[in-house]
Specification:
The complex is a heterodimer of chains A (about 120) and B (about 110). Chain A contains no helices and 11 strands. With about 120 residues, chain A is mostly beta strands. The N and C termini of chain A lie far apart (about 35 Å). Chain B is globular. Classes of the chains: A mainly beta (about 120), B mainly beta (about 110).
């Protein structure tokens, strides 16, 4: 199988601070990783696509200066929530794309990070 | 962008077969259909993926008609641990990798 980890699994921070969330593909290399956000009782919302060695591609409405993404290696992508505010409290989930047969990429999801901003 | 439509919720008794149907009328020729399962406060878990006809693995079966405008996830003999949200996704080709859009999903409640 393919395993994706996230760290930390949960974090509580004060308003105005920055929080970094790590996403790692443990047993495969991922040139592409995705970051999602999920509010209670809602579906996952794609925030950005992270490509190794290049700038991330953000979805419409997602502030790139607030949600900094760095994909420095083939196994690690980080999401930094800068100057976090209570409305940023959410469940953040990453996924890593693994090349499968027929040109398809399978996405494997991390366990998620629960962010609570006080 | 292919949009998917699923029932918001379903109930089933333990041991029953559950079929969840998803509509994706605007599916493109190169799109694949993927189903994920999500438990509360966890990341989605891959269940099954297909392009057409029928796909079966150790967990589920996926039925896709010839027009590919819908698909049905079949879970045989569900147990209480199958209570979760099930998402039907249509993969969108974006620059060589697959960007997917999650719909609202189907909340399956298995009843003892």
């Amino acid at each position: 199988g393919a395993v994706v980890s996230q760290h930390p699994s949960w974090v509580i921070c004060k308003s105005g601070t920055s929080v970094k969330i790590e996403c790692r593909s443990l047993d495969f290399q991922a040139t592409t990783m995705f970051w999602y956000r999920q509010f209670p009782k809602q579906s996952l919302m794609l925030m950005a696509t992270s490509n190794e060695g290049s700038k991330a591609t953000y979805e419409q409405g997602v502030e790139k200066d607030k949600f900094l993404i760095n994909h420095a290696s083939l196994t690690l992508s980080t999401l930094t929530v800068t100057s976090a505010h209570p409305e940023d409290s959410s469940f953040y989930i990453c996924s890593a794309a693994k090349l499968a047969g027929g040109g398809m990429n399978e996405q494997f999801f991390g366990p998620g990070t629960r962010l609570t901003v006080l | 962008l292919a949009k998917t439509t699923q029932p918001i919720s379903m109930d089933s008794y333990e041991g029953q077969e559950v079929n969840i149907t998803c509509s994706h009328n605007n599916i493109a020729t190169n799109d694949y259909i993927t189903w994920y399962q999500q438990f509360p406060s966890q990341g989605p878990r891959f269940i099954i993926q297909g392009y057409k006809t029928k796909v079966t693995n150790e967990v589920a079966s996926l039925f896709i008609p010839a027009d590919r405008k819908s698909s049905t996830l079949s879970l045989p003999r569900v147990s209480l641990s199958d209570t979760a949200v099930y998402y039907c996704l249509v993969a969108e080709n974006s620059g060589g990798y697959q960007k997917v859009t999650f719909g609202i999903g189907t909340k399956l409640q298995v009843i003892p």
